[in-house]
Task: structure prediction
Amino acid sequence: MSKVAFLGLGVMGYPMAGHLKARGHDVVVSNRTAAKAQKWVAEHGGASAPSPREAAEGRDIVFACVGDDNDVRAATLGSDGAFAGMRPGAIFVDHTTGSANLARELFAEATRRGLGFVDAPVSGGQAGAESGALTVMCGGEEATFATVEPAIAAYARSCRRMGPAGAGQLTKMVNQLCLAGLVQSLAEGLNFAERAGLDRQLAIDVISKGAAQSWQMDNRHKTMIAGRFDFGFAVDWMRKDLAICLDEARRNGARLPVAALVDQFYAEVQAMGGGRWDTSSLIALLER
Result:
């Protein structure tokens, strides 16, 4: 068991930190809103700290799951950042979905300070975090990954090292690109079925047994048919992730015509007031 810190107690971080505590790790949490950290301690035990630096002091591993690149920088760098409190040999694991450039930047800074760093974005959403069944894509040195993998197992059903620093973030970009096209296709299929006079549930029951089957189809078709989107992975966050993908593509020359189009559809959902709706809300555009 390790002495760990967890920074960021949102819909993902809150249950992830809980799984670490349930596995017997000594956990200190820190959150921008202190009341959330206090609530977590009341529920799980452990301790809270007012800043990332104080949370990181004396810890073997420091985990973070925050909003974006700027939030990660705030949690790691500067006088109140975790790096300032971490002892030599400690490892920082960033579960935030961010840019590969930032991962490489933080890996270099961590190495300069005698620290380890792993970029480790996750897939599986809030449900996966709560059930401890996330997929974790990691970038970093092999020995560093091997050290943190047993702790990550507290909330992951799959955890793989994809390559050097930044490789985890690049793999998450692949995940989001594939996801965007799937959700749009499912939305179009359901809308087409309704306009063709089909029983949409019956149609899904049939095609989900064939080549069209996907996680999105299995887990989102019922709420899409019902027009319920008040849960899950928010459109605002998906647009953040697609912006990272499109920016990386401009550097590496990859063509992303479908992702660029779906990103604009999500912008229309935001304009409808659906920024916090689940990503499956793309169907709402077709049903207007």
